[in-house]
Design goal:
The protein has helices at 10-36, 38-56, 59-93, 99-112, 115-118, 156-163; strands at 137-140, 147-151, 172-175, 195-197, 202-208, 227-233, 239-245, 257-258, 263-266, 278-283, 298-299, 301-304, 317-318. By secondary structure, the chain is of the alpha+beta class. The strands form three sheets. Strands 2, 3, 5, 6, 7, 8, 10, 11 and 13 form a nine-stranded antiparallel sheet that branches. It has a two-stranded parallel ribbon with strand order 1-12. A hairpin with a 5-residue loop joins β6 and β7 (239-245). α2 (38-56) runs antiparallel to α3, α2 runs parallel beside α4 (99-112) and α3 (59-93) runs antiparallel to α4. It is elongated, with a radius of gyration of 27 Å. The termini are far apart.
């Protein structure tokens, strides 16, 4: 007796179709990898994933991805370019195909071009929107007299040196008349030796003033931040960083609890600075425990008790109203 075949179930047909699509996808992927080369594919993947982390990520992972785009990716690209040049020469000598090397050159150049981000030739702000960056903090102005905002705000035009880094996204550089004089004598700048008042209450977690003050315009600095005071704010538990202070001018030490308006030290010209000024910014992570100054999340910083807007921009003249 002849038996008729049983009809296949819809689930069996669906499973077979999924397996077929999966197998074909794997085949196409392997074919693509063979065509462009595993190393080239890896380089493209690293670059794409890093950009995804920058714009789709948040918090420290995004800060690290941004740092990688500006500092790590270009070095990787230059190294990969040298490797491809070497392999291309070897292939030419051995009369082998150089097709994969051409793809390698494209990958290496794309990676290396990120050096333009580091040099600010391509100017991109760190992609953190002020509306989403929390907690922000509002503090007092750090000087008793009239001050000029050298750099500050939320745009490239007003805050270019800072806005392209994660930690300094909303940092300020503050000066006083006269400034930008071109003089090599720090005493020719209005903010030199001015008293710095604590903008808020908090615990001093770092206090250092042993670096010498450099000549304005010099590059002979010992550290990026120079002499500094870092506060852990009572209000938010976040951190306020004040840099480029004068040697031997601090009036506080680690562990001190300061109140708003207490004297912290005086403005100098230590660290990476073109002229005497005070650098101040707000960030989430403890700067003492951060492996590199830029590997932190910058947070918005506003000021109260002045005659201008809470976030003054470049060129704004600010006078405290107290």
């Amino acid at each position: 007796m002849r038996m008729q075949g049983l009809p296949l179930s819809s689930s069996s047909i669906s499973s077979d179709r999924v397996l077929h699509i999966t197998d074909r996808s794997c085949f196409l992927l392997m074919k693509l990898l063979k065509k462009i080369g595993l190393m080239n594919a890896a380089m493209f993947t690293v670059l794409i994933l890093t950009w995804i982390f920058v714009y789709a990520g948040a918090g420290l992972p995004r800060a690290y991805a941004w740092f990688s785009l500006k500092m790590v990716i270009p070095i990787l690209g230059i190294a990969y370019l040298l490797l491809n040049v070497t392999l291309w020469v070897i292939n030419v000598i051995k009369k082998k195909s150089t097709k994969k090397r051409r793809i390698g050159f494209i990958a290496a150049i794309l990676l290396s071009l990120h050096l333009l981000l580091l040099m600010n030739i391509i100017q991109l702000p760190y992609p953190s929107r002020i509306q989403n960056a929390q907690p922000s903090v509002t503090v007092n102005w750090p000087f008793a007299g009239k001050t000029v905002v050298g750099w500050g705000g939320d745009s490239l035009n007003t805050n270019l040196p800072h806005i392209t880094w994660a930690s300094e996204r909303w940092a300020y550089d503050l000066v006083m008349e006269p400034f930008n004089t071109g003089s090599h004598n720090p005493e020719d700048y209005g903010i030199w030796n001015q008293e710095i008042l604590s903008p808020a209450s908090g615990i001093v977690i770092a206090a250092y003033d042993k670096e010498h003050d450099i000549e304005p315009g010099s590059e002979s600095f010992l550290s990026m931040e120079g002499n500094h005071v870092y506060l852990k704010l009572d209000e938010t538990g976040t951190y306020l960083l004040l840099n480029h202070l004068k040697q031997n001018s601090l009036t506080v030490k680690i562990g001190d609890h300061v109140q708003t308006g207490d004297l912290l030290g005086r403005v100098g010209n230590s660290g990476s600075t073109s002229e005497p000024h005070l650098h101040i910014h707000h960030q989430r992570q403890n700067p003492v425990l951060t492996p590199h100054p830029v590997l932190a999340e910058g947070l918005p910083l506003y000021f109260e008790g002045t005659d201008t807007v809470p976030m003054p921009q470049k060129g704004t003249v600010v006078s405290p109203s107290f």
